Amino acid sequence: MFYKKLGRTGLSVSTISFGTVSLGVDYGIEVPGNFGRPEELEVIQLLRKAADAGINFFDTAPNYGTSELCLGEAIGERSDCYIATKVSIPPGAGGEARKGNELSAAIDASLASSMKNLKRDYLDIVQIHNATLPVINDGAMAKFLLRAKDEGIIHFIGASVYTEAEALAVIEAGCFDVLQVAYNLLDQRMAAHVFPAAKKAGIGIIVRSALLKGVLTCKSEWLPPELSALKAAALMCRDTLAGTWEKLPGVAVRFCIASPEVSSVLVGIRTSEELLEALGVSESGPFSESMVREARDLALQDAFLLNPSNWPVK
């Protein structure tokens, strides 16, 4: 396993990290016989295997079902593993954004719940979940997280975002240590401006959606007709870079790792077989320059199509 510094945090994190959303909720493209979260005992055993194999960075969130609880049971007491969780505050009873003491209390409750679930006395990293421009520019959530950081409840704060504008706003805010963005063979929009700006600011980059919710795997064969353009793009990636569906996921993750600004790439792992595949990717080495050039030509520009929240799948 290879490790890189996570920006100014100084944490040395595995370049392959463990994304846990599919361990706590049913997530991704529904494929017969290959869909749905594993049983909790299997999840706990899988997480421990990953940690024993050298993966030391795990990403979760309170709304990832039982993910936090399983992580706490599996590796909560391991000091050699870092866990990044999130905080997202639902609107008030009237649909309005929470502010002031109400927002502060909601954040405190979320952090306390995460510490209990994860069996930790503090939280390594807490990210604002799906941070929007209004939330970033308002600064209230960041202020309360910074207070928790000063109190030792949190060691580092971050944000997960969807758009380039949101990512640049996080960087410009100056108070965030970590930025989580979507990046993959088909969605390369963060590379031009966000990656260089984050590196200059000392902000660690975590990449999610390396397989674009399963599109860059054989699961793309089960995409609905409305996403035929995505299926065609995945086929092009397969034929250009990998040759087979079996090889494409590894190639897709290696592409993300090849970006020098990226510290770690989150991979959704549901089985021991997928864990072995992820570990093998880590040992495969970087892309050649010619492969990088070919990969750059495969990117799509349709922002609507590249956002999984717009798809007619779970």
Structure in words:
It is a single chain. This protein has 314 residues and is an alpha/beta fold. It has a single domain (3-310), classed as NADP-dependent oxidoreductase domain (TIM Barrel). It contains 13 helices and ten strands. The chain has helices at 21-24, 40-52, 67-75, 100-118, 133-138, 140-150, 164-173, 194-201, 228-242, 248-257, 272-282, 289-296, 303-306, and strands spanning 3-5, 12-14, 16-19, 57-59, 82-87, 123-128, 154-160, 178-182, 204-208, 262-268. The strands form two sheets. It has an eight-stranded parallel β-barrel, surrounded by seven helices. Strand 8, helix 8 (194-201) and strand 9 form a beta-alpha-beta unit. Helix 3 (67-75) crosses helix 4 (100-118). The longest helix is centred in the middle third of the chain and has 19 residues, at 100-118. The protein starts with a strand and ends in an 8-residue tail after the last helix.
Average pLDDT figure:
93
Helical percentage: 40-55%
Largest sheet composition: 8 strands, parallel, barrel
- Distance from N terminus to C terminus (CA atoms, Å) equals 32 Å
The CATH architecture term is Alpha-Beta Barrel
The radius of gyration over CA amounts to 19 Å
User: How many domains, in number, for the residues?
Assistant: 1
Short description:
The chain is of the alpha/beta class. It has 13 helices and ten strands. It has one domain (3-310): Alpha-Beta Barrel (TIM Barrel).
Give the topology, please:
Blueprint: E1 3-5, E2 12-14, E3 16-19, H1 21-24, H2 40-52, E4 57-59, H3 67-75, E5 82-87, H4 100-118, E6 123-128, H5 133-138, H6 140-150, E7 154-160, H7 164-173, E8 178-182, H8 194-201, E9 204-208, H9 228-242, H10 248-257, E10 262-268, H11 272-282, H12 289-296, H13 303-306
Parallel strand pairs: 3-4, 3-10, 4-5, 5-6, 6-7, 7-8, 8-9, 9-10
Antiparallel strand pairs: 1-2
